[in-house]
Amino acid sequence: MAHLDIIDPIHDFVRVYEHELALVDSPLFQRLRRIRQLSGAHFTYPSAQHSRFEHSLGVMHIAGQAGTALQEKGILNSDMLEILRLAGLLHDIGHGPFSHPFEEAMLGKKIPHEEFGKQIILRSEIGDILSQNGYEKKLVASVAFGESKHQYLNEIISGALSADMMDYLLRDGYFTGAEHARIDHKRMIQSFGMHRGRLALEHSAQHSFESMMHSRYQMFKAVYFHKTVRAAEMILIEALRSAADELGLATTNFDDFVRLADEYVLSKLISSVSPELERARQLARDYQDRRLPKCVFEKTFTGRAGFKNIHPEKMRSEISAKSRVPEDDIFVDSSATPSIPLAPSKNESKSLVLITKKNGRQTAEELPISDIPIVSAIAGYMNILRVYTHQKHRKKVEIAARSIIGDAR
C-alpha cells in the first residue's frame, strides 16, 4: 500500500497511507496546522508552539499501534484497525481556534467541538473522502467521539488508556520541556487486551498506568493550569466571548470555519474598528504583547471537595465593590478538571480492567480506582480558583479577595 513516512520528534516516523493522506491534505485538516495545541502556554514555555495537526497524526500513530497489538492477539481485524487509525486522525477535527479556551468562550453559543467534529466527518469533504475510499463515515465518527458499540475501541481514542492522552502528554512534555510527562506508552500498548467489551491492561503494566496518571496530574499543575498560562487564556476568553457574534465565531458553515485559526482570529480582533469591540480589541492586544494580569489570590482543592458555591462573575462584582477597583480590571478564573480522565461516556472512570496470565490461562479483574493507592490519592477533581488584576491594583484586590473568598468551600 502506497504510503508516506513523516519524521516526528515524538514517534520518530509516522506512517501515513494514501487514503489517509487524502484526508490530511484537505483544507479542513490542514487548518489544524494553524491551531496551537496549548494556546496560551507559549507565553510561559516559549517552545510550546506545536499544533493540533501533528498531535492528530500522533494519535493516529498510537491508535494504530494499539490496534496492531490487539490484532496480534486475535481481538481486532485489519478493517477495524484502519477505522481506529482514521478515528485517531480525525478526533480533533472540530476544534475551534485556540482549542480549549475557545470552547470556554463559546459555551452556550456553539456546539461542543466533538459534536461539530462529528458533523464535519458526516457532512463535509472529509466524509466524501472516507466514502470514496470504502470506509463507513458513520463508523469512523462513532469511534472518534466515543459512541461506538465496541467500548474498547472508544477507550483507545479517549479515556484513561487513550492514544489521545498518550500523545499529548509525550508531545506537550517535549515541547514545554516539562519533565513530568515521561510515560512508558509502548509498555502499556503491548499489554492491551479486552475483557467483556472493555479495554484491559495486563497486570504487569499496572505500574505504567499509575505513572501515567501521576504524570497527567503533574502536567495540569505545572503546565495546563499554570497561573501565567491561565492569565493569558483568561483575557483571550473574555475577548473571544465579547467578539463572538460580530466576528461570526460560532459559525457552523464549513467554508467559514476553515478560516478560523489562531492568528486569523487574533488579527480580526485587533484590526476591528467596531466601537462595541473596544475592550475586546485591547484584550487581544494585551494577549498578543504578553501584557498579562497578575495573580493576587489562589486557592486549590483536590479530591472530592470543590467549589460548590463559587460563581466567578458574582465574585468579580463583590471584589470590585469591596476594593473599589473597576470590574474590567479584575479577572476571576475557576479551572477544574477530573484528576483521572473521563471515560468516553463522559462519566468518571471508576475502574481499571487488569488481565493476569498464569499457566496458559487468562483471568481478569475489575480493579476499582479507589484500590490503586497512588491513583486514588488524586482521584476526584482538581479545582483551582484564582483572582487576577493589573499591577497598580494588586494590593487592594488581594485584600478584597482574601476577605470575600479566603475561606471559600
Notes on the structure:
With 409 residues, the chain is an alpha+beta fold. The protein is built from 19 helices and nine strands. Strands 3-4-7-8 form a four-stranded mixed beta sheet. Helix 10 crosses helix 12 (206-224) and helix 15 crosses helix 16 (278-288). The longest helix has 21 residues, at 52-72. The termini are far apart. The model has no long low-confidence stretch (mean pLDDT 93).
Q: Which helices and strands appear, and what pairs or packs with what?
A:
Blueprint: E1 3-8, E2 12-17, H1 18-24, H2 27-30, H3 52-72, H4 78-90, H5 100-105, H6 113-123, H7 125-132, H8 137-144, H9 151-157, H10 163-176, H11 185-190, E3 192-195, E4 198-202, H12 206-224, H13 227-243, H14 254-259, H15 262-271, H16 278-288, E5 294-301, H17 312-323, E6 330-338, E7 351-358, E8 361-368, H18 373-376, E9 381-389, H19 394-405
Parallel strand pairs: 4-7
Antiparallel strand pairs: 1-2, 3-4, 5-9, 6-9, 7-8
Helix pairs in contact: 3-4, 3-10, 4-8, 6-7, 6-8, 10-12, 13-16, 15-16, 17-19
Order of helices and strands: EEHHHHHHHHHHHEEHHHHHEHEEEHEH
Residue windows where pLDDT falls under 50 for at least 5 positions? none
Number of strands: 9
Largest sheet: 4 strands, mixed
Secondary-structure-derived class: alpha+beta
Q: Which term fits the overall shape?
A: globular
Mean pLDDT: 93
Q: How far apart, in Å, are the first and last alpha carbons?
A: 59 Å
Task: Name the strands of the widest sheet in spatial order.
Answer: 3-4-7-8
CA gyration radius, whole angstroms: 22 Å
Helix content: 40-55%
Strand content: 15-25%
Helix tally?
19
